[in-house]
Amino acid sequence: MMTPALSVIIVNYNTADLLPGCLDSIGRQGVSCEIIVVDNASRDRSVDLLRERYPGVTVIANRTNEGFSRANNQGLRECRGELVFFLNPDTIVQPDCFAAMLDFMAARPEVALAGTALFDPDFSPHPSVEYTYPGHRYARRELSGLPGDIAWILGAALVSRRDCMERIGGFDERFFLYGEDVDLGLVMRKRGWRLGSIPGAGVIHLEGQSERSTAPMEVFKKKLRAELLFYDKHYRKDTVRRICRAYGRQARWRLFSLRLTMPFCRDREAAGLKLDRYRVALEFYSGTMQ
Prior knowledge:
The chain has about 290 residues and is of the alpha/beta class. The chain contains nine helices and eleven strands.
């Protein structure tokens, strides 16, 4: 069996309505690739859809929601391509994207992980590259001497060398959802590899579609948990305490300010949501300092 030029891994959770757009856009690339979809116990007809309409796609159907990182690792163990493209199902790959990715990675052996250009549905650019980490200003000792300028890349569309992913053990499965892309970027750079950005490879990203049914406050809590896990993994304990004290003070000030201005707010509902978010943030940061 011929080795594909590229392995595409898609982690799906209740996005049966979006999968055809994503998979059909891959089929139009004109590049030899294998596609692996790992379904995290979707309650819609995702698995039936895949087996009925896309017989060439390898489907891994989990009985429970294993999380984003673990599901990607399941796909990684099955893939055969030298390059692996981790792609969200709420995306549409633009023409010549795969060709641009292959050319970019072939020309830059020092790059272990790269991201495509991302666009909103109206084709306005969506930021996909970050140059600092959470709590960066407090963690300069831990983050000094890293190769390259890019800190991390949004995980919606990431291409990596398979051997590099295997050497680091894949995604850290403690990150269930959110934060895994931030962690992956730092892990790669600690190994001495650079991150890259591929402006000629475009992907439309609808963003957040697998969490459509999740309450906004629950999403916010998940992101905070991932942020704290990142701190504990990569930063010294005294650095983590400094970060949490600083962010805790900021949350207290925001709460104080919002309570003062609440009677004068035109949008009381939005102000109330902000108030709830800062209360939750203060609880998280205060709990970490104990």
